[in-house]
Amino acid sequence: MAAQSMKRPSVPSSSQVPDHGSGYGEARVEGAKNHWERTGSLKELTICTYNVRTLLSEPKLHELEKELDHITWDILGLCEVRRLELKSGHMLYTRGKDNSSTGGVGFLIRKDLASNVVSYKNQSDRVAQVIIKISKRQTLKIIQSYLPTISYPDEDVDAVYEEINELLNQDKANHTIIMGDFNA
Asked: How many domains is the chain partitioned into structurally?
């Protein structure tokens, strides 16, 4: 009896042929199919964004890695990044001004997901994109942004939105996430 209560509803279908989800016949299709599970791909992905306020010093990098030990994460979108290498084995994709205290975006990808990265693109030091393969047929585009604060001219803010829009129209993916520090 408990097994029947866990049963998924029948998959809707316009077909009236038996055995093809129509509800007719003995072997009708039962329950929605989880394509991610069936193809052996990622079942759950934890995506976060974090304003690190620079990673120029070793203590800042150590602090970030300690904080990551206490949270569940797979992909971490970073703002205000200026560090170019990481020793933990996780993949760091970044672009920023090495000697500047503003801007800089990137992604920290858990080392066991690094082989799923299809592409990485820097639009500027305020907008970046990574595309992750999440199954044989599905990709996920993540756009990380770091918008200027209110002290910047409106033209600078508009330029960042234009960069985000350009990335949205390039490099097609099945799913898209836009995240970051929007400095509301």
From this structure: 2
Cβ-count burial 128-145 (b if 16+ within 10 Å, e if not): bbbbbbbbeebbbbbbbb
- Token look-up 């797979």 returns 74
Which of 18-32, 36-50, 51-65, 73-87 bottoms out in mean pLDDT, i.e. has the lowest? 18-32
Say if 42 falls within a structural domain: no
φ/ψ of 178, rounded to 5, equals -115, 125
130, 107 Cβ separation under 8 angstroms: yes
Which single residue is written with the structure tokens 């009896």? 1
pTM here is 0.64
Residues 22 and 56 in one domain: no
Structural domain of 85: 47-181
CA 35 to centroid of chain Cα atoms: 19
40: Cα within 13 Å, side-chain hemisphere: 0
pLDDT tens string 57-113: 777 777 887 888 888 888 888 887 755 556 677 777 776 555 444 568 888 888 888
For residue range 121-144, list pLDDT tens digits in order: 988 889 999 999 999 899 999 999
Which alpha helices (DSSP H) does the chain contain, by range? 2-5, 35-38, 58-68, 154-169
